[in-house]
Design goal:
It is a single chain. The two termini are 31 Å apart. It is globular and about 50 Å long. The protein has helices spanning 2-30, 43-55, 70-94, 110-137, 142-155, 166-187, 192-214, 221-242, 245-250. It is 73% helix and 0% strand. The protein has one domain (65-250).
């Protein structure tokens, strides 16, 4: 197991961890606005690329399930949209300070922001849902692989911890785990391209909601508590759906 699963994961994590501060340094040197593009999101693509170069076609990968998974995909999309609505309702009920970004505050034309955000989501999902989760699925149940992937995905954003309180960062990791379960519902059983494409689209959808509804929040514990609560509930629903053999068989 170590050579086929654990070792590639360790190489990915170490390479990504090394690439992250180097990309942050590159960002500082180039003066690129992090509100437009945060180069550190590409660290996971670096890690996945290195694993691909070392192992090439020798990586373990779960079998593709030859059946339509349209219902699971629709459920995941609905959950992501419902999360945005629930967050918006919570913000209004609490009279929260996070609001849509002011006109002209995005730092770049809208089309540039959208393209950059999509590329960033893809760069992350190549590593997490395209590499780590499938590797874990060869030895664990899909829901267990999704839990671990989500925890690693959240911890992989360690650079956020420098600007957040420990409680806020812990709540962010809870949200990351829940989101991983939602993404797993739509991606498990698919081939590599399908996994990455769907995870990228859902990741992008979530990011766009937090950006355009809340300007990515204010970094407070309350903001991340709301995220953890909303995605936590939906993540439990996704977990239930993922572990129901009859539902999976009918999909």
């Amino acid at each position: 197991m170590a050579r086929r699963v654990i070792l590639p994961i360790l190489v990915f994590l170490v390479a990504s961890a090394i690439a992250s501060p180097l990309l942050g340094l590159l960002q500082d040197r180039t003066g690129l606005d992090p509100n437009v593009l945060r180069l550190t999101v590409f660290s996971t693509a670096v890690g996945a690329g290195l694993v691909g170069l070392i192992w090439r076609r020798r990586l373990a990968y779960p079998p593709t399930i030859p059946r339509s998974r349209g219902r699971s995909l629709a459920a995941s999309v609905a959950m992501c949209l419902l999360a945005g609505l629930a967050m918006w309702l919570l913000a209004r009920a609490q009279d929260a300070p996070w609001r849509p970004p002011a006109a002209g505050s995005l730092g770049a034309p809208l089309v540039v922001v959208l393209v950059v955000q999509l590329l960033g989501a893809a760069a992350e999902e190549v590593g997490w849902r395209g590499l780590i989760q499938p590797l874990l699925e060869t030895r664990l149940a899909a829901w267990q692989a999704a839990l671990i992937t989500g925890a690693l995905f959240g911890a992989g954003h360690f650079y956020l911890a420098f600007g957040l309180s420990p409680a806020a960062f812990a709540l962010f990791i809870v949200s990351a785990i829940a989101i991983s379960l939602i993404l797993a519902l739509a991606t498990v059983g698919r081939g590599w391209l399908g996994r990455v494409a769907i995870a990228t689209a859902l990741h992008f959808l979530i990011n766009m909601q937090t950006l355009f509804l809340f300007a990515d929040g204010d970094g407070s514990v309350r903001y991340f508590a709301d995220l953890a609560a909303v995605f936590g509930v939906l993540g439990l629903v996704a977990l239930w759906a993922t572990t129901r053999p009859r539902i999976a068989a009918e999909d």
